[in-house]
Specification:
With 92 residues, the chain is mainly α. 45% of the residues lie in helices and 0% in strands.
Length: 92
């Protein structure tokens, strides 16, 4: 029972996703212009803007390293440094 594959299917690129368990490649036909098949993310265009916002909120644990917080810390450190230099000059 050997069925012939359509000519285009035989020559197309194959999905390069691998199984974690067995290490075997998927080998389904890859989506045109991609390296994965439709089942392994070949049709995905990435998260939507709402999805990106949700992910950002989920991954932020405490906010100590946000851009605004780093700026505030840098300003605070500059003020402290200036105050220390003033005290040093006063003592001399």
């Amino acid at each position: 029972m050997s069925e012939k594959q359509p000519e285009g299917l035989a020559r197309c690129l194959r999905c390069n996703a691998k199984s974690k368990r067995s290490g075997v490649r998927c080998n389904s036909p890859a989506v045109k212009g991609k390296s994965k098949c439709r089942m392994h993310g070949g049709t995905s265009r990435g998260p939507s803007e709402a999805g990106k916002q949700r992910l950002s909120e989920l991954h932020m644990i405490h906010g100590n390293y946000t851009r605004d917080e780093r700026r505030n810390t840098a300003r605070y450190n500059a003020v402290v440094k200036a105050a220390r230099e003033l005290l040093k000059k006063e003592r001399s």
